[in-house]
Every structure is written in structure tokens, then in C-alpha cells.
């Protein structure tokens, strides 16, 4: 059964109804949504692209690199990962820059570009942390250098920092210490590297780059649709 409510989200097709008023329709997982817009001010494609911005603001846009989480991933790392990442970043950013959106969505286009920049920095620094720690140290946020510094000292410093990280994690994760003991008995050097660089360093860098707040994105998305469609905006949704 369908119920008429007021909420919102994505995807799109448009059907013309007059020379100026045009009905734009889209769907989310539960709802069929539509509203009339002034086609002398915007095109259906601009609206579709504007909706795409919001969808992409809450997901990962760069997917060519994943931080190592298993020992056998370490041997697969190479400087080619940097080249692949740079090429993907260039392509994805160019695609977004070329999106034609409604004027009210320009600010969200800039936010998406900022988010893509942040994802590139995070992945680039993580690759460098493994393959060129000197360069990573120079380029990293100050608070994240603590996870790289032990590797410039000795194995004892690495193991000490790893244990410190695990103890902190164990405050909220009851299995953290037992997992640490197993990994330490198996391959302490490699597991310490993964924990300190993928989780310690990688998460630290990730916390320093831009991420859109999902609730703010949702609220801004709703507001944009109200601006574009006014009182004509309607939704027919499946009953939960």
C-alpha cells in the first residue's frame, strides 16, 4: 500500500507538461517522488546532476586503493598504486567539475570536490606511509606523525607503540587484547605495521580531511528540493 508523505532522496526521469512547468520524477528505495519546476530556469539534467552530488557526498568516490588489513596484502603494495590513485583522482574530479547543476547546488559541488580531495590525500599518505615513510612524515598532519615516528627508531619502539594503540582500543573492544596476543605470537613485525599504519595512521589522517555530515547532507537535499519544486513536491511511499 502507498501512503502520501513528505520526505526525499534520489534517481531521476522528467516528463514535460508545458512550455514552462515541467514534472520531474525520481525514486528512492521506498518512494516515488515528483514535483514541478520552471524549465526556463533549470533543465531536468541539471536537477539530476544536482541530486547526484548529494548521493556522492555520503559515499567513497575513490576506490582504486584499499589499505592493507592482512599480511599478504603487504607484498602487493607498490608505487604503481600511487600512479593508479592519481589517475583515478584526476578522472573523478574532472567528471564532477564538468557536472552542470542548478545554481543553488554549486556550493554542494564544491563540497564534493573537497571530499574527493580529502580521499586522495588520505589514500596517498597511507601508500607513502608503507612505501616511503620519509615523504609521508614530511607531508602528514602533525598529530598523525606519532604512528610513523617509531619506524625511524627501532623494532622495540614499533612494538611499544603498537601495544599502546591496542591498550587504547581495548577500552572499548573486549576482543582487542586477545587478538593482539595472537598476532604478536604469529608475526609481530608485520601485524604491528598494519595496525600502526592502516588503522593508527590511516584513521588519523582520515579524521583530518573533509567529510560531509550525513544529516546535514540530507537536510540540505530536502531544502534544495523545496526550493526547486515548492508546494508541488509530493511523494508516494510504500508502507513500512
Largest sheet: 5 strands, antiparallel
- Low-pLDDT segments: 1-18
Spatial shape: elongated
* Distance N to C terminus: 9 Å
Discrete helix count: 9
Q: How helical, in percent, are the residues?
A: 55-70%
Kindly provide the radius of gyration, computed on alpha-carbon positions and rounded to a whole number of angstroms.
Answer: 23 Å
Structural class: alpha+beta
Average pLDDT works out at: 91
Q: What order do the helices and strands follow?
A: EEEEHHHHHHHHHE
Output the strand order for the largest sheet: 1-5-4-3-2
* Number of separate strands: 5
Share in β-strands: 5-15%
Describe the 3D structure.
The protein is of the alpha+beta class. The chain has a domain at 1-58 and 212-240. 55% of the residues lie in helices and 12% in strands. It has nine helices and five strands. Strand 3 and strand 4 (31-38) form a beta hairpin. Helix 6 (155-170) packs across helix 8.
Secondary-structure blueprint of this entry?
Blueprint: E1 2-5, E2 13-16, E3 21-27, E4 31-38, H1 44-57, H2 71-74, H3 80-97, H4 106-131, H5 133-139, H6 155-170, H7 176-186, H8 188-208, H9 214-229, E5 234-238
Helix pairs in contact: 1-4, 3-4, 4-5, 4-8, 6-8, 7-8
Throw out a few tags for this protein.
240 residues, alpha+beta, 5-stranded antiparallel sheet, 5 strands, elongated
Quick structural overview:
The chain has a domain at 1-58 and 212-240.
